[in-house]
Design a protein that fits this description.
The chain has 320 residues and is an alpha+beta fold. Helix content is 47%, strand content 19%. The strands form 2 sheets. It has a 7-stranded mixed β-sheet with strand order 8-9-1-10-3-6-11.
Length: 320
C-alpha cells in the first residue's frame, strides 16, 4: 500500500529541496547586507531571530519591513539588499567560523539584529516549477496575529526556529547536519504556514488556501498522467467550467492546463534522468499518447529534446 500524500508533500517529492544554513548575522545598527543573485537552482532565505530589517524590494516596490519571527524567502534568487533603515554608513562586518556555522558580526552599537541566512538548493527543472508558482519574495509573518490564523503551524515554525537558534549557537556533534536538516524542513513549513494565512500570496499558496479548488489541485499532483479536461476538473470541484476556469486563473495566475504541463514535464525530466525507460514509455507515463507530441512539448518547455536532456543529466551525474 502506498503512503498517502497531500499536494505539498507530492510537490516536494517531485521537486526535492535541500536546505543549507550559511551565516548567522549578529549586527548592531548601522548595518547593511548586499547579497548577490543566487546561483542557478538556489533560493535565498533569511530568518529574523531578533530585531528588524528593511528589504529593498527587488521588484522596485516600497521597502518591506521584516521583524523577529519573520521568514523571508526569495524564490527567484534575485540580488537583494537588507539594512537597518537608519540611512547611516554601515559598520563593516567581520566573519568568524565556529564548528557548525559562520558568524558575521560588526561593531555597531545601535539596535541589534540576529538573523540566520541560508539557501534552498534545487536542480534547474525543479527550481523552474517552484519559481513559476511562488511569489518573487515571500514573507511569512511570525507575529502573534498571523500565528492565530495558523495556530498549530505557527507553533511548529516557532519551535523550528528556536531549534535552529540553539543549534547555531553551540558546537554540538552533528550540528551542521542538524542545521541543514532543519533548513530543509523550514522550506515545507514556511509554505504550509503561508498557505494558511488570511492573505495567502498569489500562486500555489493562494490556490491551496482556497478549499473549493483543492480537489483539482490534488488530482493534478497525484494523477498527472490522467487525461484531465477542464469539465472533469470542474466537476471534481462541484462548479461550472466557466467558474472553475475563472477562479483557477484568478488564484494561480495561469490555467490548470499550464500547471498540469509543468507537473508532467518535471516528472518526465526526473524519469529521463533516473531511469533507462524509452522516451515513448516516459511520454506515456506522464499522460502523452503520442511520443511526437511529448517531444514537442518537452522541447518547448525545457529548451532541448528529451534525448539531449538525458545525455546532459547523465554527464552532470558522472561529474558529481
Amino acid at each position: 500500500m502506498s503512503v498517502p500524500q497531500d499536494w505539498l508533500s507530492r510537490l516536494l517529492d517531485i521537486t526535492p529541496v535541500r536546505g543549507q544554513l550559511d551565516l548567522r548575522c549578529q549586527y548592531g545598527a548601522p548595518w547593511r547586507i548586499d547579497q548577490d543573485a543566487s546561483a542557478a537552482g538556489e533560493m535565498a532565505y533569511h530568518v529574523v531571530l531578533q530585531g528588524a530589517a528593511l528589504l529593498e524590494d527587488p521588484d522596485g516596490g516600497p521597502p518591506v519591513q521584516i521583524g523577529a519571527g519573520d521568514i523571508l524567502l526569495l524564490a527567484n534568487g534575485q540580488a537583494h539588499t537588507l539594512h537597518d533603515g537608519s540611512g547611516k554608513r554601515a559598520r563593516r562586518p567581520v566573519q568568524r567560523a565556529a564548528a557548525n556555522v559562520v558568524f558575521s558580526e560588526n561593531s555597531g552599537h545601535g539596535a541589534r539584529l540576529d538573523m540566520l541566512c541560508g539557501r534552498f538548493v534545487l536542480s534547474a527543472p525543479h527550481a523552474r516549477l517552484l519559481r513559476r508558482y511562488l511569489p518573487t519574495h515571500l514573507v511569512a509573518r511570525g507575529t502573534a496575529e498571523a500565528a492565530k490564523e495558523a495556530r498549530e503551524t505557527g507553533t511548529q515554525l516557532a519551535t523550528l526556529m528556536a531549534l535552529m537558534r540553539t543549534e547555531s549557537g553551540v558546537d554540538s556533534l552533528g550540528g551542521r547536519a542538524m542545521l541543514n536538516a532543519l533548513s530543509t524542513a523550514l522550506f515545507a513549513l514556511t509554505l504550509r504556514f503561508a498557505s494558511q494565512s488570511r492573505e495567502a500570496p498569489a500562486g500555489l499558496l493562494a490556490l491551496a488556501g482556497y478549499p473549493r479548488l483543492a480537489p483539482a489541485l490534488e488530482a493534478l499532483f497525484h494523477d498527472p498522467g490522467q487525461p484531465w479536461t477542464l469539465p472533469l476538473l470542474a466537476r471534481k470541484c462541484s462548479m461550472s467550467r466557466a467558474t472553475f476556469v475563472r477562479l483557477f486563473q484568478e488564484k494561480l495566475g495561469c490555467s490548470a492546463s499550464d500547471l498540469l504541463t509543468d507537473i508532467r514535464m518535471t516528472l518526465a525530466a526526473n524519469a529521463l534522468r533516473t531511469s533507462s525507460a524509452s522516451t515513448g514509455a516516459v511520454a506515456e507515463s506522464v499522460g502523452y499518447q503520442s511520443e511526437a507530441a511529448f517531444q514537442r512539448a518537452f522541447k518547448l518547455h525545457m529548451g532541448i529534446t528529451p534525448a539531449q536532456w538525458r545525455r546532459a543529466s547523465q554527464r552532470q551525474d558522472d561529474e558529481v
